[in-house]
Every structure is written in structure tokens, then in C-alpha cells.
Amino acid sequence: MPDAGPDRATARKAIALLTGAAGFTEHRPPPSPLPPDGPLGWAGYDAARERASARTGEEESVLYGTGVVGDRACVLLSFEFGFLGGSLGRQTGDRLAAAYELALARRLPLVALVATGGSRMQEGMIALTQLQRVAAASVRLRAAGLPQIAVVRDPTTGGGWATVGAGADVVLALPGAQVGFAGSRVRPPDADPYAYSADGQFEAGQVDAVVPADELTAAVTHWLRALGPHEDLPAAPVPRALSVAGAPVPRALSAGGTESAAGAGTGAGAAKGSGAGTGSGAGTPSAADSGPAVPLPETGREAVARARDPRRPRAEAYLADYFAVRLPLHGDRSGSTDPGLLCGFGLRGDGQPVAYVAQCGTPTRPAGYRAAARTIRLADRLGVPVLTLVDTPGAANDAEAERAGVGAAIADTFAAVAAARVPVTTLVIGEGGSGGALALAAPDNTHVTVDSYFSVIAPELAAAILKRPPSETGATADQLRLRPQDLVDLGFARSIVG
Fold it and tell me: Rounded to the nearest 5 degrees, what angle is found at the Cα of 339, between the Cα atoms of 337 and 341?
């Protein structure tokens, strides 16, 4: 295993980067000595451990204890890559298991600073089975509603990535870090190195943010504030409407029913950055909602046209207005992302944490639904209320989406919302296109804006199915009763916002 390079921070420096002057109190598990040369009697193993200890000043490849990051107490564990490549042996497992149990006993979040080459071959299967111990300890912490954050350093590979790293609720990576299950010496010789990098894992939806070292303390502090633990948080307030007041009524569906949704904004995917975006102050008055109230649409065709108006505020505007700080969750953890769906956690101006899932006006892809379900389930486990913003013409219906399991992904999202014990608040801000939109709508707590609609099917498709001429598309929109006021009358929506 390679030695620690001169540019790699030690385990203690990694902790000090987060805790600063607040300091760190180290803990140690009860002594449990190994037999001579370890469980396999590997010749020279004791001598290798002694050299590693002399070089690093550490007794093992992991140290752990309690500390304060920003203003939040937590349990920290940190890998020392200079000690046999940060590898996991039985005594490493003792420390990792003890760190998780310490977090459980004190009801504190756990922050893991990972830098490891994987399991320690000199201890054979005894080393490998430490992964099972870590997984079991992580499950106990998860069941207790306590969050886990991983910061993956260079390198994070093998079983350490597959448990402590990728198994965390939120995964942050340092720029330039090697991150992947296969280490550099065991992957195919022609493998693309980008796939094993922090940026590559972010692109594949396996990492939530790539965070520069000088932004790490702020990012972790925000995440700790958002994830808790919390008790009895109120429901997410309904966002205020951001309709463009005084704008001319947009062109309605033409007689031929050719008005398009092509102008819908796509939104922006989660940025690498610090993983912490700032909003306009959450609730600060803005020009977008100043002036007189926008009248309700008189017809179904007008409601559809308004929702498809490219000038209408999209999810990014609503989220920026709603949150003081946003913390994106990125990707579906299955190798894909959907830039048309934004999800994560945020802090409002009063400090209240809220998880969010927001469609950006595009057809939502399977990865988007999987990311949504991931976010909702995490929020539910941590007791954080959820806000969903609905705005899609419908689920993606191309062949690639079918191969990627769009039906199963939508079903899983329906299940995540249905099973949520925390309150879910929904605001329909644009198009509510059939089941692809309904999957994110909260039963009995959905609200709509004046420039939105919700329909069992798009008017154009309904007319085609009914074998009506294109000239009847507008009349079909009226028949579907999809206007905001219709949705309230039908009992689907609780209120019209704005």
C-alpha cells in the first residue's frame, strides 16, 4: 500500500480543519490486542505496524471522538492514510464500531473523514468482515434517526468507500480525490481514470458536492444544522407566489392546439461548489410578486398557456426566495442524474430546515424520481418536513427512460410520499402533467398558483386519443377542468396561492 504523500492531510489535520479552535476530544475503545503478526500470523506484520505508528504517531488507521463543527456537536472519525494506507483491520473495525456507538449513545450526528485503500490483506478475512461490522453499526445509527455525513479525501477506495463513504446520508468530496470501489492497482489497465475521481463520481450522481477545503467547514456546518437531529418540526410553509404581476395574458392555445411547452425553463443541476447555495433571504419581498394580484384564468386553454409561458418563474426562483441556504443532494446513487429535478435540504431565514424536491418544467427522468424518493425518505427518517414544487409536462417517455425503469421509479416516488411520516407540502407552480407530476404531490396538502394547471393528460394528447381534430384541443382543455379554481372545487388543491 502506498505511503501518505506530502500533500495529504493527516487524520488530525483533517479534523482540525473542521473543528478549529473548538477542539476535539479523542476516544479509544477498550484494548483488544492482536495475536503475534495478526490473525493470519503474517510474517512481518507487527514490524510493519510499528513502522507505521512511528511514522504517523498513531496507534491505528482511524481515530475518533467528539468535537464541534461550527456551532454543532458531533462525533468525528478520521482515517490516517499514512498508517498502512488507511486500511481496515480488526482494530480499525473496533474503532469504527465504537465511533458509531458513541454517536448513538449521545444522539449526535457522525461525520466521517475518509481516506483509505480498503481492507488490510495482512489480516485476511478477519479484515474483510469489518465491513459487515461497519454496515451494522451504520444501520443502527440510521434507525435511531441520526445523520451521517462523509467527506471523502484522497484516496477513498475499496470497502471503506463502499461502507463509511458511499453509505453515508450525504457524501462530500474534496477536489482531486480518487474515489471509487476499485483502487488504482486493481482496476482494468484501460479504465478511464475520470470515473474514479471526485468529479467523475459527482457527474455519475454518487457524490453530492465537490467542496474545496477552504469551504468545507461552512458546508459541513450547514449540513449539520439541516440534518439535525431535530424534534417536532412544523410543516414546511407554503411558498408565496412569484407570478409576474401585470404581464400581458400569454397567447392561449391556438385553434389548432399548437401552443408548445418548449419555452419551459430547465433549471440548473446541483453545482459542484460548496454544496451550499444562498437565497434571497427566504421571504424577502421581491419584484416578482409586487403589484396587483394576477386574475384567475377564465378558460382551460388560458390556464395551460399561462403555465407554459416562458416568463413564468421556475423552481430556481421559488427556491431562491424560500431558502436562505440551499444544500443540494445530487444524483440517484444508481449512476444517473436528472438536471430537470432539484432536490436537497435548505435552511429558511428563521433557521428552520426543510427538504425540497422541485421539478423544473422538463419531463422528469427516472434518475429524477429516484433522487426524489431518496430525498423524501432521508427527510422522513430525520424528521425534517418536505416541500415539493410540481412543474412538469409529464414523465419522460422516450425509449431510454423506459429502459431505465421510469415506471418503477415513479412507483417508488409515490411510495415514498405515501409512507412519509413528516408533513409534505406541495405547491404546483406550472404544469401538472399527469402521473409524472402527481407522484410528487402531497395528498390533502397540495396548493396551486394562479399560473398553473393539473390534468390527467395534456389537452393535445387527450384530443388525439379521443380522435378529435386539432381545432378542438382548446375545448378539450376546458372539458378537463384543469384550471387552479377547478382543482380547488374538485378537492384536489387546498388553496390558490397568489
Answer: 95
